[in-house]
């Protein structure tokens, strides 16, 4: 185990919350899964991470 100050959500927050976090200068990384809706990919400041 290791320590990090990252905030992790078990479910994708709604778009309003993601935009709010972006305005607070958080780096937002979403797990890139086939069922990730396209509009989440288009939110300014979000990045996707492919995990295999």
Tell me the number of helical segments per DSSP (H or I, 4 or more residues long): 2
- What structural class is derived from the secondary structure elements? alpha+beta
Low-pLDDT windows of residues: none
- Major sheet: 2 strands, parallel
Distance between the termini: 21 Å
Looking across the biggest beta sheet, what order are the strands in? 1-2
Radius of gyration: 11 Å
Shape: globular
* Count of strand segments: 2
Order of helices and strands: HEHE
Task: Give structural notes.
The chain is α+β, with helices and mostly antiparallel strands and 52 residues long. It has a domain at 20-49. The chain is built from 2 helices and 2 strands. The chain has helices spanning 15-23, 38-41; strands at residues 28-31, 46-49. Strands 1-2 form a two-stranded parallel sheet. The mean pLDDT is 88.
Summary, kept brief:
The chain is of the alpha+beta class and 52 residues long. The chain is 25% helix and 15% strand.
Spell out the key features of this protein:
single chain, 52 residues, alpha+beta, two-stranded parallel ribbon, 2 helices, 2 strands, globular
Helices and strands, with pairings:
Layout: H1 15-23, E1 28-31, H2 38-41, E2 46-49
Parallel strand pairs: 1-2
